[in-house]
Amino acid sequence: MTSQNLHAELMKHFSNEVAKLTNEQLTAYAGGWPNHLPMAILDAIYSIQTRYTTEHGKGLLPRLKSFKETHPEAAQDLRELLKLSTADIEAILGRGKTSGTSKAQAALQVAQNLTELAPPVYTAQDFNYVNAEHERAYLSVHGLGNVTYRYLGMLLGYGDVKPDTWIIRAVQRVADTHQLDLRITSDLARHIVTETHKATGYGLRRNSNPPGPRHLAQ
User: Fold this and answer.
1) Any alpha helices (H) in the chain, and if so which ranges?
2) For a disulfide at 81, which of 37, 74, 134, 181, Cβ 3.0-4.6 Å?
3) Is residue 52 within 8 Å of 60, Cβ to Cβ?
4) C-alpha span between 147 and 44 (Å, rounded)
């Protein structure tokens, strides 16, 4: 069987599995921060290897909400975020690291990179997920990669999927169950989930910014 046929078979079986999910499971994605670029950056970075929510009301999401309430201007404008120190951010969001880099420092570096572009990026209205320079401003920071950049786009309202470990495992499980000789990479997982959404409409999320694309709930 060719790789193209294998992918088609995988998508068919994955679609069947998704059809078994409840509406609650399909809409688990919290909706992101479509008008708050700094919040989306912080969320994308701090979500790396972190529990987003827990049964007891803890996890990253409550801390993000606390940050937004404590620093409402910094939550919307990168210029205001850059007025904060690493310690200011860590006091609320924690002292996590990604590949040895402080997550707070990584967020501030992304903010610095974006504000130094021409034209500069300060708010969600200035940011363009498909702009190569904007993408480079994020990916050039040590410890950040394509998976969290795609998640950043989702958080801002762009239609995409975050092919993290859980998504890759879910697609790999379907492939293994149906004895399809495939090793699921993040790119293949993203392709299968996105194409399944296009074909079935499962996981549809309506967003107001930017117009057009819609989210796949993860």
Assistant:
1) 3-18, 23-26, 37-46, 60-70, 78-81, 86-93, 103-115, 132-139, 146-155, 165-177, 186-200
2) 74
3) yes
4) 9
- Are 195 and 11 in contact by the 8 Å Cβ rule? The answer is yes
Residue 46, token pair as written in the block: 């701090």
Closest CA relative to residue 44, chosen from 35, 33, 53, 59: 33
pLDDT value of position 23: 61
pLDDT at 3: 81
Question: For residues 218 and 216, what is the distance between their CA atoms, to the nearest angstrom?
Answer: 6
User: pLDDT tens digits for 186-218?
Assistant: 888 878 877 877 777 665 443 333 322 333 333
| Token pair listed for 58 | 């803890």
Let me know: does 118 contact 173? Beta carbons within 8 Å: no
Q: Which of 148, 124, 100 is nearest to 210 (CA)?
A: 124
DSSP code of 39? Answer: H
Predicted model pTM: 0.68
